[in-house]
Design goal:
290 residues; 7-stranded parallel β-sheet; 13 helices; 44% helix; globular
Length: 290
């Protein structure tokens, strides 16, 4: 039995889609905070169990009979460590045979502010003495394609990444990697640094966007504080504006670059090219495996 936390989230649903191509639904458990949002997963044959990162006793009950667990990192930045600790403790008590965790690229040395909670979670996992595998995910291409509507509206793409190269991949690529690891044998102790095959600067992103739309969309590089202020004025909460702006600043120093190609090697195909991610965003279609 394989269980997936955050199963109704964007990554969780894609992981389940990928797993269903490899194993029967009867071997999958969807762990969700709100079972009402998972009726479609139940209809597909999955077991749906209520499991909240903040409720340790419910987590332990939800993990009964589970062999492998994918812990998809919490989306609640600043509260992740305590929530992850609950899941890790429940997994240990439930006798999980393999815990896979979605960490961040080069977690041990990353300049990204959000890497700290991932580093601390990795330390908790290792200290728990559970067989584990770390999926250190790089940046999602969707993190940048989400900015396309505003870039088209204001005729410019803005950011603070300078000339930093970004080795992003589509969310579907990371989902395929998670599914592959979960069905493989002998994964305990492995650490995967996962990133896209193709690295680009935000100026190159803007050039590709211009090419596909026929619009002239330049890239305007801003100081981090100024970029954060623009994001907040657009309606983003301060914590997320700070996260995006500081991440761009770290990208300028190489924090989002990787050329090991471990992701494409793991999934057995090239990662989704930037051009395809931009095209998918412009048409409103999800990125598809190719």
């Amino acid at each position: 039995m394989i269980a997936i936390t955050g199963a109704t989230g964007q990554l969780g649903r894609l992981v389940i889609d990928q797993l269903l191509q490899k194993i029967p639904a009867s071997q999958l458990v969807a762990l969700v905070r709100n079972p009402a949002k998972a009726e479609d997963l139940h209809a597909r044959g999955l077991q749906v169990r209520q499991a909240d990162y903040t409720q340790p006793s419910a987590l332990e009950a939800a993990l009964k009979g589970v062999d492998k667990l994918l812990l998809i990192s919490s989306s609640e930045v600043g509260q992740r460590l305590a929530q992850h600790r609950n899941v890790i403790n429940a997994a240990k008590n439930a006798g999980i045979k393999l815990l896979a965790y979605t960490s961040v690229l080069n977690a041990e040395h990353s300049l990204l502010e959000l890497a700290q909670e991932h580093r601390e979670t990795e330390q908790l996992i290792k200290a728990a003495d559970i067989p584990f595998v770390l999926l250190r995910n790089g940046w999602y291409s969707e993190n940048y394609t989400a900015a396309i509507p505003s870039a088209l509206q204001f005729k410019a793409l803005i950011g603070s990444a300078g000339e930093g190269k970004i080795s992003s991949a589509a969310r579907i690529d990371y989902a395929a990697a998670a599914a592959e690891v979960l069905v493989r044998d002998n994964q305990a102790g492995k650490i995967y640094e996962l990133a896209g095959d193709q690295a680009y600067t935000l100026a190159e992103f803007a050039a590709e966007l211009s090419k596909q739309t026929g619009e002239q969309i330049p890239y305007n590089n801003l100081p981090i504080a100024e970029y954060k202020a623009v994001l907040q004025s657009a309606g983003l909460p301060e914590v997320f504006a700070e996260l995006l702006a500081s991440s761009d600043g770290s990208a300028a120093q190489g924090a989002l670059f990787d050329n090991s190609h471990q992701l494409s090697q793991l999934i057995g195909r090239a990662t989704t090219p930037l051009s395809a991610s931009i095209a998918a965003a412009l048409t409103g279609a999800p990125n598809a495996a190719h």
